[in-house]
Specification:
Largest sheet: none
Number of strands: 0
Helix content: over 70%
Radius of gyration: 19 Å
Order of helices and strands: HHHHHHHH
Oligomer: single chain
Length: 233
């Protein structure tokens, strides 16, 4: 196999990564499409609309969006840790199928939490209340906790409760890392929604997962080295 060097090698490597990230993001977007459609098709300015949106959002998030997102993190984990770049389609659906039952259990809990946050945010937004600032801060903390959970979920085999606890301690113990991930992801989502709509189906989730897991893995490696003593002499 020809190994490219210099500028050609850089562009070739970049193009490979863009293809990988775009491919995995597109699979995630297609599977999550029913969930996204709710935000543009359901009116929530009435009690009936709010109730229908909440039920449908919980179902689609639990059974589609969350497992699809967890599978993205698992594939990214294979790229970062194992340097396994085999078939994206096969690897993605392999992770989706293998972890589906566990992920819908976690997804059910996360969907309820995020739905409660969304309703609160929507209320403060419509009322033009200063509470929206507090709501945004809670949202950022919840996002950091969620991506840390997904990173742990893709890397370690442990109970759901243990994953939740470790995600909490990681989020609280590494606030700078969490804020960095939240800021970068926030900018990416803002660009995807308001400026460059093509980013959402092609790069938004996969780039966020790559950024979050890479940061998590560096932290995990440091912690593992601290807990495992070096061999003497």
């Amino acid at each position: 196999m020809l190994e490219l060097k210099g500028i050609s090698g850089v562009f070739y490597t970049m193009s490979e990564w863009i293809m990988r990230l775009s491919g995995i993001n597109l699979l995630w977007f297609v599977l999550s499409l029913p969930f996204f459609a709710l935000f543009v098709t359901v009116e929530i300015d009435s009690s009936a609309g709010l109730a229908f949106f909440g039920i449908a959002a919980w179902i689609f998030s639990t059974f589609l969006f969350f497992p699809a997102t967890a599978a993205v993190f698992s594939v990214v984990r294979d790229w970062v840790v194992e340097e396994d770049y085999s078939s994206i389609l096969k690897k993605y659906f392999s992770h989706l199928k293998a972890d589906y039952k566990a992920n819908i259990k976690a997804g059910a809990a996360f969907s309820l939490i995020w739905l409660a946050w969304y309703y609160g945010f929507f209320y403060f937004y419509t009322e033009k209340s200063s509470g929206i600032i507090f709501s945004l801060l809670i949202g950022a903390a919840l996002f950091i906790f969620s991506v840390n959970f997904l990173s742990i979920n893709s890397h370690y085999h442990m109970s759901g409760t243990a994953k939740m606890k470790n995600a909490f301690f990681l989020s609280a113990g590494r606030p700078v890392m969490g804020l960095f991930i939240a800021f970068c992801s926030g900018v990416l989502v803002w660009l995807s929604v308001t400026q460059l709509l093509w980013l959402f189906p092609l790069l938004t989730c996969s780039m966020t997962a790559f950024l979050a897991f890479s940061a998590f893995y560096r932290t995990a490696r440091k912690l593992e080295h601290k807990t495992i003593p070096d061999d003497a002499g």
